Amino acid sequence: MRNFMRTEAEERAYLRFGRYVRVDLRAIFGQLAGDPPAQEQYFLSGGFRTTGFDDMIVSYRGWWSAQERYHVDGGANLPGYAGRHIRGTKVVAATVSLPVHRTPVSLFAGAGQVLDDWTEFSPNTVMANAGLDLRLGGVRLLLPLWINRPEPGKRRFDWRWKVGVSLSR
User: Fold this and answer.
1) What digits encode the pLDDT tens for the residues 109-120?
2) What is the C-alpha separation between 108 and 77, in angstroms, rounded?
């Protein structure tokens, strides 16, 4: 049996500026001590473990996993890095979402890093993404159209997508 301890601080803030502008902020800082299994580590593109309704539709492997095309909020929450399976025992990240008034569309951006040792962190290793989030009822379509560190041969601006189901918000 693997023993580990999770210590994290997550803060969410919802700010209003006038009647039409709302800004949703999220920041997370966390670390795992001990020997955590891979599925308990922090992932750059979002959460890995699912609960409730997500358990019925998500696979932990393959194309429909939470690290490929299905989005679960959590970790650094940078969906532009889906499919790369970047994970670590430390996380620092911040995201911002700007809902477009009276539409199901939000603009989002975020930056952060997951790593295994704090000494690996530097401003030069921070990863970032930006895009659109379309919510129709409980279904989300995330379109992270820009990332700052694409894989070799890939483009910063490109067509990327993830789907998620959220019964709350």
Assistant:
1) 999 999 999 999
2) 11
Give the domain ranges of the chain: 4-165
Give the tens place of pLDDT for each residue, 32-89.
999 999 888 999 998 766 555 555 555 555 555 555 667 777 889 999 998 898 999 9
How far apart, in whole angstroms, are the C-alpha atoms of residue 44 and residue 76? 5
Alpha-carbon distance values, 125 to 42, 119, 120, 122, 165 (Å): 16, 11, 8, 5, 31
Residue 135 tokens, joined: 């919510």
Q: What is the pLDDT of residues 85-137, one digit of tens each?
A: 899 999 999 999 999 999 999 999 999 999 999 999 999 999 999 999 999 98
Can you say how many angstroms the Cα of residue 15 is from the centroid of all Cα atoms in its chain? Answer: 20
